[in-house]
Write a structure and sequence with these properties.
The complex is a heterodimer of chains A (271) and B (305). Chain A contains 11 helices and no strands. Chain A is mainly alpha-helical. Chain B has 305 residues and is mainly α. A two-stranded antiparallel ribbon of chain B has the order 1-2. In chain B, helix 5 runs antiparallel to helix 6 and helix 5 runs parallel beside helix 8. The radius of gyration of chain B is 30 Å and the shape is elongated. Chains A and B meet through helix 1, helix 2, helix 3, helix 5 and helix 6 of A and helix 2, helix 3, helix 5, helix 6 and helix 8 of B.
Chain lengths: 271, 305
């Protein structure tokens, strides 16, 4: 990795770190972060593939309430750097490099989590400085501390990224090449399964007895290989519209009393 | 009384831009208060001219605040309207402003999470990722551009909506519209997650259940193919009718093949449901992920996955 590449990688890491807390532009999502790191290091295609694979795993990662999800920012940045190192001189197998860096990304996402908590604690005295700036009607003071707090979140990822850039590429390639098949293959097998955890997190947030049937429909329809995701999305939107529409109708029917639209039912009820 | 002070469109756009940094100073004490105050600054500068008023306004907007970062836009719109009334002499108390913020942030966060984090992002993410896994740059671009277009349009138009409707919005909140949006999002979300589980959670059990020698004609008889190009043509023709099973004499059935005959992806959905169970028992998602990697390595080592 050349000097300019390292600077650009650290810059991407800084953006990803800020976005990890802001959650606006999505620079911290693997699909974006890994692609950018791939681009600035001259491995665009591998970066995109890694980003896609990691994104599938991280789809459901979101911090909501007390549930803490793994940190996508450090996971995507660190795994992309490790993969680029592994690909360095072209001797390592691309598939192995990708699946290994995904597996390594997971423990790193835990480390990222602790760093986030640390930053969120350090932000407490920062908002106290904002308080005293506000006391004096000092706009610049409030703005300065807000920007510093954001920068702190960027540094949270930028420093580990810079440290990873310092690891010699030979060490990573050697490690990848010396890995036995059961370890490399096993990590790939594990990588295929971990997406389930992210999906389970989403399900737990949304599932009620009422919407479970839609999960079943989605699952069964997905077996038809010709249906693209866009096609499935269209079916899903149609189902949602039909269901809520019918439910509204049913409510109105119930409100007006007699006319339930089922003559036999009415007779039985009156009986 | 002096001329009425109004927020210009430029002021509101400045607030909208700054509002994107809402979570920047997220802290365990008052959560998004710093970012909220930071976003309000252009409006405070326009509305209040004396140092005392400005200081009071800054302090007023450093109170506890926490919601979903996007659905916070209509809340800041309403707050802008309230602050404008107050600057023009209407009796809007501090508690009224704080009351509107706290009253709206709860119900709105309840919509923002399922709609953005659990429906729109998984769908756009899966769409982009499925393209990216083939190495196409279109995947990441599509995700990034679409997401940010939706997000920015949402931030601006809902903030304007909140500003125009003002405190009336509280009535709309109870009108059932939010409930409906949440319900539709969870239907669409669950449907797509079902599809994603089938497509993208991969488990393969490799143990061989049976090996049978296939009868004549059920496999390609490689020895008796004509030579040269003709042979390739014949082989491809036979392959088209026989399928992958016709490639060798023995028909090998793995455990996975048996499971797939029930329904493809059965093991994936069972694993997902197991994860739901474990998460409900407050087992950390990270622990489950690490355990799955361990299972994968052990499975490969003993040759059953």
């Amino acid at each position: 990795m050349g000097g300019i590449s390292i600077v650009l990688v650290v810059l991407v890491a800084f953006l990803a770190g800020m976005e990890g807390i802001l959650d606006e532009f999505q620079f911290h999502q693997p699909l974006v972060a890994c692609t950018l790191i791939g681009l600035v290091t001259g491995h665009p295609t591998e970066g995109i593939i890694l980003g896609g694979s990691l994104q599938m795993i991280a789809l459901g990662w979101a911090n909501v309430g007390a549930a803490v999800a793994p940190d996508a920012a450090l996971a995507s940045v660190a795994s992309a750097i490790i993969m680029v190192k592994g690909l360095g001189d072209g001797t390592a197998d691309v598939t192995t490099a990708i699946s290994t860096s995904i597996a390594l990304a997971v423990p790193l996402s835990v480390a990222g989590l602790f760093l986030t908590m640390l930053c969120r604690t350090i932000a407490i005295p920062m908002v106290h400085f904002m308080d005293s700036a506000a006391e004096q009607g000092n706009f610049r003071g409030v703005e300065l501390w807000q920007l510093l707090a954001i920068a702190l979140q960027g540094v949270r990822i930028a420093i580990p990224a810079a440290m990873l850039c310092m690891i010699p590429a030979e060490a990573v390639t050697m490690m990848l090449n010396s890995m036995p098949d059961w370890l490399a293959g096993g990590m790939a097998v594990g990588g295929g399964m971990v997406a389930a955890v992210g999906y389970a997190m989403v399900i737990n947030m949304m599932a009620t007895a009422e919407v479970w049937p839609f999960f079943v429909l989605g699952f069964v329809l997905a077996c038809i290989g010709d249906l693209t995701l866009i096609g499935l999305g269209a079916i899903g939107i149609a189902l949602a519209l039909i269901y809520t529409g019918l439910k509204d109708l049913a409510k109105q029917g119930g409100g007006s009393g007699g006319g339930s639209g089922d003559p036999l039912g009415d007779i039985l009820n009156d009986y | 009384m002096a001329e009425e002070i109004k927020l210009t469109q430029q002021d509101r756009m400045a607030v909208c831009w700054r509002h994107q940094f809402l979570q920047g100073s997220w802290n365990y004490e008052r959560m998004q208060n710093g970012g909220w105050c930071y976003a309000m600054i252009p409006a405070i500068k326009r509305l209040y001219s004396t140092k005392e008023e400005q200081a009071a306004a800054l302090k007023r907007h450093l109170e506890f605040y926490n919601t979903h970062p996007y659905v916070s836009a209509p809340i800041i719109g309403v707050t802008l309207a309230l602050e404008e009334e107050r600057a023009n002499g209407a009796p809007v108390e501090d508690t009224a402003i704080q009351g509107v913020k706290v009253g709206m942030m709860g119900p709105l966060a309840g919509v923002g999470d399922p709609v953005f984090w659990f429906t729109v992002r998984p769908i756009l993410g899966a769409l982009g990722a499925s393209m990216a896994m083939g190495g196409s740059i279109v995947g990441p671009l599509l995700f990034f551009v679409l997401w940010n277009l939706i997000r920015m349009a949402f931030l601006w138009y809902t903030q304007e909506f909140g500003y125009k409707v003002g405190s009336e919005i509280a009535k709309d909140l109870s009108g059932g519209l939010l409930g409906k949006v949440t319900e539709m999002a969870s239907i669409l979300g669950m449907f797509i997650i079902g599809a994603l589980v089938q497509r993208w959670v991969s488990i393969g059990f490799t143990p061989v259940v049976s090996t049978v020698q296939q009868s004549q004609g059920a496999y390609i008889d490689w020895e008796s193919l004509p030579a040269g190009v003709e042979g390739i043509k014949a082989a491809l023709e036979q392959y088209a009718t026989l399928g992958a099973a016709g490639l060798s004499v023995d028909k090998v059935t793995t455990l996975q093949d048996n499971l797939n005959q029930l329904i493809p992806g059965l093991a994936a959905v069972l694993l997902t449901l197991l994860c739901c169970r474990l998460l409900k028992k407050n087992i950390s998602p990270i622990a489950i992920i690490l355990a799955l990697f361990a299972v994968g390595i052990v499975g490969r080592f003993f040759g059953f996955m």
